[in-house]
Design brief:
Blueprint (H helix, E strand, L loop, with lengths): L2 H12 L3 H22 L24 H18 L4 H6 L3 E8 L3 E6 L10 E4 L2 H10 L5 E5 L9 E6 L5 E5 L6 E6 L3 E7 L7 H14 L16 E6 L9 H9 L2 H5 L4 E3 L8 H8 L3 E5 L6 H8 L25 E5 L7 E5 L13 H6 L2 H6 L17 H7 L5 H16 L16
Parallel strand pairs: 3-5, 8-9, 8-11, 9-10, 11-13
Antiparallel strand pairs: 1-2, 1-4, 2-3, 4-5, 6-7, 12-13
Helix pairs in contact: 2-3
The chain binds guanosine-5'-diphosphate and zinc ion (ZN).
The site of zinc ion has 8 residues, from helix 13.
Length: 437
């Protein structure tokens, strides 16, 4: 859990009714006592490896509050997974569903239990106070409650409330610096890259990974220390264009993705054109809600189409210089895909997610956003080690021993410099979108 995620969790905790907080403290105290008993006599180098990371460096027993927070995080995660949790049920007016499309003054809601083809979707008006702040308050993938209209009291269906999120990807508004929700409750993000046209830019993957980690609010406090590899998936598209190359050259080109393999990311070699890799993707995505990110022209729409031929998302030629950065998909949408054989999954196709800025990132947030650094820094001599020049730095030692990929360490130092220096060279930028909607 990084600092921002932790702050969010604490704010939510504080907003709980007093009786709930008391209960979590009571149960936290019991957990803590059990933990202490279990640990007694155990000779471990780091006895706090499985405790919340915030105080892991202190090497002493966690306060009850930490246990209460951890418990709270876990309960929220469970509630998210099973749809509505018991607390949610008790306090919701109206029906519940998922926002599948969000516009300026209205949104499309798929009521729980409605068919995946969209035939039961209902258009809801946003309450006036939300319409103004819609871009921070509601996004595709949000679970919502709504009330039906169609009588003299209420003309149209109306959205009532956005329910607590399991995850949310945000993007900071370049102008205001404010975080805007892009997509909520996704289980995994597929980073799509292509070879040859556009050529492979592994460094863009780093940016996406960091932005994903940085903006990912995970209700369960466990993810940051023990990242779930299913969280990000890399799809290398257009591998058919490598055919003319010699096997060695092909291997070398795809070998540029080895650093990501080394950190445990699934990498799927595909070609939407020929169907290569689609079965593998389908099985990785089974049962999940996923978002596709990646540069314009790498084939996100083509892959979505290839995963399910019935969709018919429009695809376009790779842009000329003049229209590069223009996207054929202009609004976010959630699609249900049921493969001929295999489990259903849901794809959120959102143009907004295609641009991540790292402008606002601090060096500490950067360190929080790289799983290897989170794991290794416990061994550094200094708590605030920057892993650049300090003695007894576990990160640099790991690089020397070959336990951390040099390319990833290189990424870290480059980005660190870049943060210090200000704006980055244009060719390394993830291109922004013309304004959505
Ligand atoms: P998006 O902007 O990421 O959604 O990209 P599109 O899906 O619109 O694809 C951009 C272009 O790449 C289109 O002309 C596609 O026909 C082409 N394309 C997509 N996938 C493949 C592939 O696997 N192989 C080849 N050769 N071309 C592809
Ligand atoms: Zn260090």
């Amino acid at each position: 859990m990084n600092k921002r995620q932790r702050e969010q969790l604490e704010a939510l905790f504080k907003a709980l009714p007093k009786s709930e907080q008391d209960r979590l403290f009571r149960e936290g105290a019991v957990l803590r006592a059990e933990d202490q008993k279990r640990r007694k006599g155990e000779r471990k180098r780091y006895e706090d490896l499985d405790a919340p990371r915030a105080s892991a460096s202190k090497r002493k027993s966690e306060p009850v509050r930490e246990y209460a927070l951890k418990l709270f995080a876990r309960e929220r995660a469970n509630a998210g997974r099973s749809g509505a949790g018991p607390d949610e049920q008790a306090s919701i007016a109206g029906e519940t569903g998922v926002a599948v499309f969000v516009g300026k003054r209205r949104c499309l809601v798929r009521p729980d239990g409605a068919p995946g083809d969209g035939s039961g979707d209902t258009e809801c008006r946003l309450p006036a106070d939300m319409a103004g702040r819609q871009q921070t308050e509601l996004c595709v993938g949000d679970r919502v409650s709504f009330v039906r209209g169609g009588d003299e009291r209420r003309e149209a269906d109306e959205l009532v409330q956005v329910l607590p999120r399991k995850t949310v990807l945000t993007r900071r508004d370049a102008r205001t610096g404010e975080a805007r929700a892009i997509v909520a409750n996704v289980d995994a993000v597929v980073i799509v890259v292509s070879v040859v046209s556009p050529p492979l830019h592994p460094r863009l993957i780093d940016r996406y990974l960091i932005a994903i980690e940085d903006s990912w609010v995970e209700a369960s406090g466990s993810h940051a220390d023990d990242p779930d590899p299913a969280q990000a998936i890399i799809a290398v598209n257009k591998t058919d264009l490598l055919e003319p190359l010699s096997p060695e050259a092909r291997k070398q080109e795809l070998g540029r993705l080895d650093p990501y393999r080394a950190i445990g990311l699934p990498i799927v070699e595909c070609a939407a054109e020929t169907g290569r890799g689609m079965d593998e993707l389908r099985s990785l995505l089974a049962g999940k809600v996923v978002a596709f990110v990646g540069h314009s022209g790498v084939g996100k729409s083509s892959i979505t189409n290839a995963l399910d031929e019935r969709l018919g998302v429009r695809t376009a030629e790779v842009g000329t210089a003049a229209n590069r950065g223009r996207h054929t998909t202009t609004s976010s949408q959630l699609y249900e895909i049921t493969p001929a054989s295999g489990e259903t999954f849901w794809v959120i196709d959102t143009p907004g997610i295609r641009f991540f800025g790292l402008e606002e990132l601090t060096p500490a947030q950067l360190r929080d956003s790289m799983p290897e650094l989170r794991r290794l820094r416990r061994g550094c001599k200094f708590n605030d080690c920057t892993h650049t020049h300090e003695p007894d730095c576990a990160v640099r030692e790991a690089v020397e021993r070959g336990e951390m990929h040099p390319a990833r360490y290189d990424t870290y130092t480059r980005l660190l410099e870049e943060i210090a220096r200000g704006p980055r060279p244009p060719d390394e930028r993830i291109r922004p979108l013309p304004e959505e909607e």
